[in-house]
Design goal:
Elements (H helix, E strand, L loop, with lengths): L4 H16 L6 H8 L3 H8 L2 H25 L5 H18 L1 H10 L5 H27 L8 H17 L1 H6 L8 H19 L3 H6 L1
Helix pairs in contact: 1-2, 1-6, 4-5, 4-7, 5-7, 5-10
């Protein structure tokens, strides 16, 4: 099926932003890559900055929708809830590796747009991770821990493969879009959850 001009512009922008950086990509280059008239970018996105905001919004709206849905599922334990949320996020990011890479790289830069993201989407994300970790500690599934530092570690797991995508593919020969990567990587995160976040079974039986 032929892409709409808006879809073609979006895909081309993500490709070029990843390749040349946001500042190193011109509207003319995006239009040429998408094979559309340059006026279409102004029509759909109000220029390059509007394209950047659209990339952020489309990524984080879907990210939070997936996180909220996976959090709300009826599950028997906080451990299952945490693993379920992590799996949903990894699946989403691996389905959109180029957009994920660009967005995560850009939010490491201090700007007004990024500050707005911090105060909306990332505050919501922190809320859900905090609720899960508090639930786990309350139910004596999780070790007593500093929630902020546990979230830092979780965020590292969720972002690292995409921030270092070239290293993964060119040095380690690991490919983010392959189901094998998702299965193996989720296995490693779940192992970390079991060994670092969760109380061991011996401690649970004693208590």
């Amino acid at each position: 099926m032929k892409k709409s001009p808006k879809e073609a512009i979006m895909e081309s922008a993500i490709t070029l932003f990843n390749r040349n950086g946001y500042d190193g990509t011109s509207i003319r280059e995006i239009a040429g890559h998408a094979n559309v008239n340059i006026a279409n970018i102004s029509y759909y996105f109000k220029g390059k900055h509007g394209l950047l905001e659209y990339c952020f919004t489309s990524y984080f709206e879907k990210y939070m929708e997936i996180m909220e849905h996976s959090y709300s599922l009826v599950l028997f334990s906080a451990t299952e809830r945490l693993k379920n949320v992590v799996e949903a996020i990894i699946d989403f990011q691996c389905s959109h590796p180029h957009l994920t890479r660009f967005v995560l790289r850009e939010v490491s830069i201090d700007s007004q747009v990024v500050r707005e993201i911090m105060s909306t989407y990332y505050v919501k994300e922190r809320f859900y991770f905090t609720k899960i970790l508090e639930e786990g500690m309350r139910k004596k599934e999780f070790k007593k821990q500093t929630i902020s530092y546990s979230i830092i570690q979780l965020k590292s797991f969720l972002s690292m493969p995409f921030l270092h995508a070239n290293y993964l593919t060119e040095v380690l020969h690991v490919f983010l879009h392959e189901s094998y990567f998702i299965t193996k990587y989720l296995g490693e995160i779940n192992k970390w959850i079991d060994e670092v976040i969760c109380l061991d079974k011996e401690s649970l039986s004693i208590s």
